[in-house]
Amino acid sequence: LVLSQLLKHTVMVAIDYCLARWTSDAISGKTELELKNCSHCEDFNHSPYSKVFSILCCLGIVLCLVTSIAVEWTGLKVTKKLHSCLLNKIILAPMRFFETTPLGSILNRFSADCNTIDQHIPATLECLSRSTLLCVSALAVISYVTPMFLIALVPLAIMCYFIQKYFRVASRDLQQLDDSTQLPLLSHFSETVEGLTTIRAFRYEAKFHQKLLEYTDSNNVASLFLTAANRWLEEYIGACVVLIAAVTSITSCLYNKLSSGLVGLGLTYALMVSNYLNWMVRNLADMEIQLGAVKRINGLLKTEAENYEGLL
């Protein structure tokens, strides 16, 4: 999974770099022809660039398919192994285990938790690895285009570390708060729909309507804080990265004669760093929440088997 992701994002960066180099060379060739004022000179040859660009694009499409297959295969393999081990442990568990453990808890491990491992964790893992590699590749491209960016990268990385450490705790708590306030809202709505006849008979429409508004307000407050936290992370860190990248790129372009194509490539990646970093931290927080299902299943896997010798 990691190898396929690394190869895919390496090819993606190579495609962008090839396009930037193609643009810079084409502009430089056209400028030289205009300066020479030569009508018989040959035009810029786009054939080598187009061939390399086409090969890289085809390779990128193939690697995207390979990455998707690797993600699904990894998730399926892990899920089958965990489910098989859990089933063997539960079947061989002693009677005191079933007397002390609620049946709903056991069923929840086989249903909700296995579903989380089967469907959600592989997708979140793929998004986390993709956003992480995109963020790293973007910083690498900016550092390659403007080496002065490396001077500001160290304090920026330290600041991002402490910010994401604080944000992950807040995001996880806000997500749990959003889920906990959504459940009473849905339960109250379903109970209201099922008991409409009784509510109308006792004329409690206003009371149930007010209760529904209170549950809705509580859930909206939690959702609003969660959205605001995500936007704050994206805007704050992204603005710092774009500012530093823009200043260093313009300075390098003025004093070091950096090509316009590479400057545009660096600024494009700088504008996307905020989005990549935001998704990386959010996926990391989601992964921590979803790995709770693995932790709960792992707790049942420690159940000691019945001491049964198979007597006839």
From TrEMBL:
One Pfam family linked to the record: ABC_membrane
InterPro entries (alphabetical): ABC1_TM_dom (IPR011527), ABC1_TM_sf (IPR036640), ABC_transporter_C-like (IPR050173)
Species in which this protein is naturally found: Chlamydotis macqueenii (Macqueen's bustard)
Domain ABC transmembrane type-1 intervals: 1-288
GO cellular component terms attached to this protein's record: membrane
Gene3D superfamilies: ABC transporter type 1, transmembrane domain
Keyword Transmembrane annotated: yes
A single GO molecular function term of this UniProt record: ATP binding
Residue ranges of the TM segments: 52-71, 138-164, 236-255, 262-281
Record-given protein name: ATP-binding cassette sub-family C member 8
Keyword annotations: ATP-binding, Membrane, Nucleotide-binding, Transmembrane, Transmembrane helix, Transport
